[in-house]
Design brief:
Shape: elongated
Radius of gyration: 28 Å
Order of helices and strands: HHHH
Structural class: mainly alpha
Distance between the termini: 82 Å
Strand content: under 5%
Largest sheet: none
Length: 98
């Protein structure tokens, strides 16, 4: 009796997974790829991220250098504003430690 119930349970469980695997390929949607590009300079973005990494490591002078490099290569006004605020924050951190 236990064997019959066990076999029935195995068949029922394997049947459910087999049913899910048999979906028709026409029911799937075609994959649509969207390209996302940043309007900012890649050099300024890279220096911004490096500067933030240095802030996390509490290496504020190096962070300030990278923010200034990013500001020099920034082409977009929003990026410049962000970098100026980052530089101001780093300057405050440096003054606090002195």
């Amino acid at each position: 009796m236990k064997k019959v119930l066990l076999i029935a349970l195995v068949i029922a469980l394997s049947g459910c997974t087999a049913f899910k695997a048999r979906k028709s390929p026409t029911a799937q949607r075609p994959t649509v790829y969207k390209v996302v590009a940043s309007p900012y300079s890649s050099n300024s973005m890279q220096n911004l991220y490096i500067g933030r990494k240095y802030i996390a490591e509490q290496r504020y002078e190096l962070a300030k250098e990278h923010f200034l490099l990013a500001l020099a290569s920034a082409e977009h006004e929003n990026m410049r504003e962000q970098l100026v605020s980052e530089i101001t924050a780093v300057n405050r951190l440096i003054e606090t430690l002195r």
